[in-house]
Write a structure and sequence with these properties.
The complex is a heterotrimer. By secondary structure, chain B is mostly helical. Chain B has 7 helices and no strands. In chain B, helix 2 packs parallel to helix 7 and helix 3 runs antiparallel to helix 4. Chain B is globular and about 45 Å long. The chains are: A mainly alpha, B mainly alpha, C alpha/beta. At the A-B interface, helix 2, helix 5, helix 6, helix 7 and helix 8 of A face helix 1, helix 3 and helix 7 of B.
Chain lengths: 213, 198, 243
């Protein structure tokens, strides 16, 4: 449920996550030097072709990620037709579309764990600020663990308040909920210490190296 | 630079848990149904409420980190943004600037909260949340949309005005909650003062 | 800042002269509030129970035993290791099970969470994997290996929390009210699990049934140990006192 990854064995799937992210970033910058609608349309076609042909992704997987932005693109084009001209408008819209499609392909072909590993690698310079990259993976995992937990505790408090006659979701529910989960998080901090999180070796956990290989 | 709880203090296990907790809270707020606004392509969501709470409950460093963690999970493909959006495409979309502004906004709110901490009340909380949670977010989001969509600043600016009433409501809500939480369970520790953790 | 090698005195093979846990004149206060007041004890028995009313200080007592709480004054020694200076080595010897398993499970799926402790100990991957399999099998979690932890029942979550500690193979385990949030049948199940452990255990609890067969029971009140003896001596006395 918590991932947009589409399993597969294609070249794109097997390419290193860092490489894919690097190419995406390069594309994001490079496209700003393109001013011709024809070239930009070619870029869109190429990216979509790479997604469907090379990465063998189903159309749907791409559409799911790009769909929420359609109204924006339409609005943008409309605005340009009114204020500037069709040429500028179509370049702007096509540029966004290219980037969106490329980003959707990277997301659909790269496992969450592999991207997390890249994030840890990118975070290495943050050591200067006292951030230990190995702990980033832990915090990300804890967040995924906490999401259903917070939702569950919120539902429980809402039920308790409904039982006492408060039927609407009120702001008053936020305070007891926050205090409850803050207390719990303080205990989680103790549990991390008790389970040796402080003790953690510098090397990466197994599950991540397994994904990388 | 040392403000409030020592900006570059070593991160303790409990801080890691707090950071993960607020990243999760922002995600859960994204599950609340978004309120559609007629004539606008983007509905109002509760997630910036989470940005404000992260800053004004956890303080600058932990609040900012919580939002970075949240964005990292979104970037890694978890559909945690309101409406189940996620993946890298949201980071290159026309409204991506607003996303990028979240960790900075939480950090600024936290910084102001720590600055006001000794006399923190509803008024100071509102100031912190409006500067960090509204001014900072728009100051980053508006120019970003303008550059990406090749539209002039004024157009991008007027386009976002519709969100201001909703954001004001959120700032008030976050401030009320932050002041109440501080009274019962203060998380921010100033030097020489310990939080009442059990 | 410390991400280099650990100081030598915190190595796991540090010399351990006295076996058991020793508390010397231990006092602990949160700010002005004194929660533990002059406790001196030596704990060497295999099964030790700790009872007392809410707020008596027994939860803080439990946290002293593996260095989660360091006393304001006095010393706690675990096999001769000082919890103040050798806390990492102490925690490798003393596992801790919390009241609320939700606070103890930190990874989204069952197998990942079981691997967390052993991995932190720096064990090789195949050994970590072996221990995960062993725990999955022993506590009937094998079918839930890749399930999200939040889908487990309350009893299963507490078993996962215990298994996560056991996977680290500590010599003793401290339980802080392990059954308080459980229903009757799960309480019995967890009691049986504790009963079958080969490790030394210290169990802080309100469930007096848990303590049958224990070697020693301490009664804590207002931060002091007011009774100390076999369950047959202390439990009826404690029950009478509560009435």
């Amino acid at each position: 449920m918590l991932s947009l990854y589409v399993p597969g064995e294609s070249v794109v799937h097997r390419a290193r996550a860092g490489l894919k992210l690097g190419l995406l970033a390069a594309l994001g910058i490079g496209l700003f030097w393109v001013g011709s609608p024809a070239v930009m349309a070619g870029a869109v076609a190429l990216v979509v072709l790479a997604g469907v042909g090379l990465a063998r992704l189903p159309w749907r997987a791409l559409a799911v990620q790009v769909r929420p932005v359609w109204p924006w693109l339409a609005l943008l084009l409309g605005f340009h037709l009114l204020v500037t001209d069709l040429r500028t408008g179509s370049v702007a819209v096509l540029r966004l579309l290219t980037l969106l499609a490329a980003a959707a392909i990277v997301t659909a072909t790269t496992r969450v764990t592999a991207l997390v590993a890249v994030i840890e690698w990118l975070a290495a310079p943050l050591r200067v600020f006292g951030v230990r990259p190995a702990r980033i993976g832990l915090v990300l995992a804890m967040t995924l663990r906490f999401i259903p937990l917070v939702a569950e505790r919120a539902a429980r408090i809402r039920e308790a308040q409904a039982a006492r006659g408060a039927h609407r979701v009120r702001l008053g529910m936020a305070v007891p909920l926050l205090i409850q989960v803050l207390r719990m998080a303080a205990t989680v901090g103790e549990a991390l210490d008790a389970r040796g999180a402080d003790d953690a070796p510098a090397r990466r956990p197994r599950r991540r190296t397994a994904v990388a290989s | 630079m040392r403000i409030g709880s020592g900006t570059f203090r070593r991160v303790k296990s409990r801080d890691l848990a707090y950071v993960a907790l607020f990243a999760a809270i922002v995600a859960v707020l994204g599950l609340l149904p978004p309120v559609p606004v007629p004539g606008l392509p983007v509905p109002i969501t509760a997630q910036t409420l989470g940005v404000m709470l992260a800053g004004s409950v956890l303080g600058a460093k932990r609040g900012g980190l919580a939002l970075l963690v949240f964005l990292a999970l979104v970037a890694a493909g978890a559909p945690l943004l309101a409406g189940g959006r996620g993946g890298l495409s949201v980071f290159v979309g026309p409204t991506a600037g607003y996303l990028y502004s979240w960790p900075i906004a939480a950090f600024v709110i936290g910084l102001l909260t720590q600055l006001f901490w000794k006399r923190f009340n509803l008024a100071w909380a509102l100031i912190a949340n409006m500067i960090g949670g509204i001014v900072v977010i728009y100051a980053i989001g508006i120019p970003f949309t303008s550059i990406y969509g090749d539209v002039p600043l004024w157009a991008s600016f007027t386009g976002s005005l519709t969100f201001i009433p909703g954001d004001l409501v959120k700032a008030v809500a976050a401030s009320v909650v932050a002041v109440a939480v501080r009274r019962t369970y203060p998380v921010i520790e100033l030097p020489g003062r310990r939080a009442a953790a059990s | 800042m410390r991400w280099g090698r650990r100081p030598a005195e915190e190595a796991d093979d540090a010399v351990a002269p006295g076996a058991g846990i020793e508390l010397r004149d231990v006092e602990h206060a949160y700010g002005e509030r004194v929660v533990l007041d002059g406790i001196s004890l030596t704990l060497t028995e295999r099964r030790i129970g700790v009872v007392g009313a809410n707020g008596s200080g027994k939860s803080t007592f439990a946290r002293l035993l593996n260095g989660l709480v360091v006393p304001t004054s006095g010393t706690v020694l675990v096999d001769g290791l000082d919890t103040r200076t050798q806390v990492r080595a102490v925690r490798r010897r003393v596992g801790f099970v919390f009241q609320d398993p939700d606070a103890q499970i930190v990874h989204p799926t069952v197998a990942e969470d079981l691997a967390f402790g052993p991995h932190n100990q720096g064990l090789p991957d195949d050994e970590v994997q072996r221990r995960v399999e062993e725990m999955l099998g022993r506590y009937g979690l094998a079918d839930h290996r890749d399930h999200p932890a939040h889908l487990l029942s309350g009893g299963q979550k507490q078993l996962l929390a215990i298994a996560g500690v056991l996977a680290m193979r500590p010599r003793r385990i401290v339980f802080d009210e392990p059954t308080t949030l459980l229903d009757l049948s799960n309480t019995r199940r967890v009691a049986r699990v504790i009963d079958e452990l080969e490790q030394d255990v210290v169990v802080v609890t309100h469930h007096l049934d848990l303590l049958s067969g224990f070697d020693r029971v301490l009664v804590v009140e207002h931060g002091r140990v007011i009774a100390d003896g076999t369950p047959a001596e202390t439990v009826p006395w404690y029950v009478a006192r509560m009435d």
